[in-house]
Design goal:
alpha+beta; seven-stranded antiparallel sheet; 31% strand
Length: 134
């Protein structure tokens, strides 16, 4: 019963994050226009990106989830980088000095690579490493 309540809490939290995101970042666009990655329910796909499901990795461990998702688009690296720079903070992701984002006990890393005329976006979500004691 405890696991069911935790899943419901996580689903409600994801729903609330989606609502905050949609109202803050895309208030001028219809909410239905925004797509999200399949494996990370509250991680938006930047406009113009198409997720490639055959490359995705999802693993649940005792420490948390390990997810890698890929998407491709026709716009340049700068366009996608700026989108996520604006979109992630309203969803609770805090930008760190090393360029990663953190939220709760997770770290999100985004890599952008120009591949000919397309841009590959790879997003990885992993559990935050435990801090070592003194």
């Amino acid at each position: 019963m405890h696991k069911t309540s935790a899943i419901k809490s996580m689903s409600l939290l994801a729903l609330l994050r989606n609502l905050v995101f949609l109202t803050s970042v895309f208030s001028a666009q219809p909410a239905l226009a925004q797509a999200f990655f399949n494996a990370v329910e509250d991680l938006p796909l930047a406009p113009g990106l198409v997720q490639t499901l055959d490359q995705d990795i999802f693993f649940e461990s005792l420490r948390g989830r390990i997810v890698t998702v890929f998407a491709y688009g026709e716009d340049g690296v700068i366009v996608y980088r700026e989108f996520y720079k604006k979109a992630l903070p309203p969803l609770g992701w805090a930008l760190q000095a090393d360029g990663t984002y953190s939220r709760d006990n997770e770290v999100l890393q985004i890599d952008f690579k120009a591949r000919g005329r397309r841009t590959e976006v790879r997003i990885r979500v992993v559990p935050m490493k435990a801090k070592k004691g003194p």
